[in-house]
Specification:
Helix 2 packs parallel to helix 8 and helix 3 packs across helix 4. Strand 6 and strand 7 form a beta hairpin. Helices cover about 40% and strands about 10% of the residues. By secondary structure, it is an alpha/beta fold. A seven-stranded mixed beta sheet has the order 1-9-8-5-4-2-3, with helices on both faces. Strands 10-11-12 form a three-stranded antiparallel beta sheet. The structure holds pyridoxal-5'-phosphate.
Length: about 400
């Protein structure tokens, strides 16, 4: 049961640890990945080698785009996309406050201004009616127009890209997809990565596929692709190693990382199917717990499972206490996501306050991210479910759990 006297510490991170019976996440690394890394190391060609081009080509083919450009993180991918779109000081970029902080920080990197728009409580993605109202409001009242929309496929569920693309067209805005959480999600035959002018992916170990650290830019636009290749590699654009035409960066991804990514993208269907199955096990095992909303429904198109986040329906329940109690049961959980506009950096710079984006704030106060990774088995799911039941003071129907166990194993 909830114990209200305890100090709450939320221990975080995505590393192997003996503190937990079930970890928040784990990468899905097979023998192929290990072999591939060894092959790069013995080849002596550790960066800008053959694995880079192979990883990019196969990633582009999977996401259904013309170009994929590998970089050293999802954050670098977002940074380069905005830079190649010439988003600069004072430019307004419309985006969501319910996301991982990098999707807004990349706007600050350009000294541009994030214009937050609240989300839809059911999809947790940016609310398109509010986006349209915001664009109209800015056009009426400000001398400048917004320059771009940066949409996020939060928790792996696609934003409404058809409508975003119509808005971008109508109001002449650049459109950026942050698909870092959505590899493999698809709608009407198009996969995450193929929406907007360009998309960013990240390969941190808790993402669907990992390279240790890493990221990817996908685009059909030749100019964006060429500029990103130049900027990730110190502003080099010709064949000469010491000729620099642009102010560039070192955002390169080593061949060691690319080899892991290549092995991962070659078995992405298997990786995603395992995650789908874990989500299904959770959905069925947790279905009878009252007063929580599971992440199963509703969907626009299909989703790619990144995390398993449920919401407490009763806003007076102390969510942080629930997290602390789960951690006492040795279940590693998290509070995805604290609103970006309420982060100290954003409060100080822009004066945001509680109440500015009420839907985001309500979701953020009620969210519980459970352990989620493809190699979870039924017993892990059941351990998490038992801890939840114990925290909520619920006694499950033993016969129902037994028969599910027989079905799912
Ligand atoms: C993970 C993530 C990023 C950043 O990726 P890194 O590789 O960690 O830099 C950006 N946006 C979203 C929504 C993410 O989930």
């Amino acid at each position: 049961m909830l114990n209200h006297d305890k100090n709450i510490t939320i221990r975080q991170g995505h590393f192997k640890s003996n503190s937990w019976d079930v970890q928040l996440s784990q990468p899905d690394i097979g023998p192929g990945e290990i072999e591939a890394v060894t092959a790069v190391l013995t080849s002596g060609w550790l960066s800008l080698g053959p694995r880079l081009g192979d990883f990019e080509r196969e990633f582009a083919a999977y996401t259904g785009v013309k170009h994929a450009i590998a970089v050293n993180s999802g954050t670098s991918a977002l940074d380069l996309i905005l830079k190649t779109m010439d988003i600069g000081p004072g430019d307004m970029v419309i985006t969501t406050p319910f996301s991982f902080i990098a999707s807004a920080n990349c706007i600050l990197f350009q000294d541009a201004i994030p214009v937050f728009v609240d989300v839809d409580s059911k999809t947790q993605n940016i609310d398109l009616d509010l986006v349209e109202a915001k664009i109209k409001e800015i056009r009426r009242n400000e001398p400048d127009q917004p320059k771009a929309i940066l949409g996020v496929d939060v928790f792996g569920r696609l934003a409404d890209w058809e409508r975003l693309e119509m808005l971008a067209e109508e109001y002449d805005l650049k459109l950026i997809e942050d698909g870092c959480e959505a590899l493999g999600a698809q709608n009407n035959g198009r996969r995450a990565g193929a929406f907007g002018d360009a998309c960013a992916f990240g390969f941190y170990p808790n993402k669907q596929i990992t390279t240790g650290e890493g990221g990817m830019i996908t685009t059909d636009d030749d100019r964006i692709a060429e500029r990103c290749r130049c900027l990730r590699n110190q502003g080099r654009s010709g064949s000469s190693w010491l000729a620099h035409s642009d102010l560039g960066y070192n955002y390169r991804l080593s061949d060691i990382n690319c080899a892991i990514g290549l092995a991962q993208i070659r078995r992405v269907n298997e990786i995603l199917m395992k995650r789908d199955y874990v989500a299904e096990m959770y959905g069925r095992r947790l279905a009878d717990i009252p007063d929580i909303t599971l992440p199963g429904e509703p969907d626009t198109g299909s989703r790619s499972w990144f995390v398993y986040v449920l919401f407490l329906d009763d806003p007076s329940l102390e969510r942080d206490q629930v997290l602390a109690e789960l951690m006492d049961h040795r279940i590693q959980v998290s509070n995805y996501f604290p609103p970006i506009h309420l982060q100290p950096l954003y409060r100080q710079r822009f004066g945001f306050r509680e109440g500015d984006f009420p839907v985001t704030e309500s979701l953020a106060r009620r969210s519980v991210a459970l352990p989620f990774y493809g190699n979870m088995g039924w017993s892990d799911v059941n351990t998490v479910a038992q801890a939840l039941e114990s925290v909520f003071g619920i006694v499950p129907e033993p016969q129902a759990v037994l028969s599910l166990a027989g079905e799912m194993k």
